[in-house]
Here is the input.
Amino acid sequence: MKGNFYDSERVALFIDGANLYSAARSLGFDIDYRRLLKVFREKGRLVRAYYYTALIEDQEYSPIRPLIDWLDYNGYTMVTKPTKEFTDAMGRRKIKGNMDIELAIDVLEMAEHLDHVILFSGDGDFRRLVEAVQRRGLRVSVVSTIKSSPPMVADELRRQADDFIELSELAPLIARNPSERPQRPVTAEPDDAPAEHLMRSSA
Here is the structure.
């Protein structure tokens, strides 16, 4: 895995759940979150691993709930909020669940306790956040992919980061073994995904 890491540096992961899910799916693999944590624990002093996702609250069963519970008990700090439902101009029911503000606030609040921020997102809106954190003396690595079509990472975010970690190169270290029985369901899809997509469970 490319990227510069130092044994003594304090590291935290900030995972945009919907964005990472879409990037991994575009590359054709599912993430083993236990393996992901292990990889970065071996790279430095892992202070915290945050996972951000929106939840549909009025569902009897949410396909993402087992994932949330598993992560919560296995070393991740979960940050969730209810989704908002709206009808678009075409009359289609859609779900909105943007976690950008929550992620940005946590990065800024944690900055004084860290040396290196690992951002799992390709969202160009985070460029200014990365710049602000760098001004405080931190290094920022962005994990996403340019191998998908179209690329999942915004060019401005990739250029602003100190290091870009290509998700496809990380895949051998964090992919779930296809022969294993899936222990995690699909996670939420990106902003404005049709509601029925958010409600489906994995096979």
Notes: The chain has eight helices and eight strands. Helices lie at 17-26, 33-41, 65-73, 100-110, 127-135, 155-160, 167-174, 195-199. The two ends are 30 Å apart (CA to CA). Strands lie at 10-16, 45-55, 77-82, 84-87, 93-96, 116-120, 139-144, 163-166.
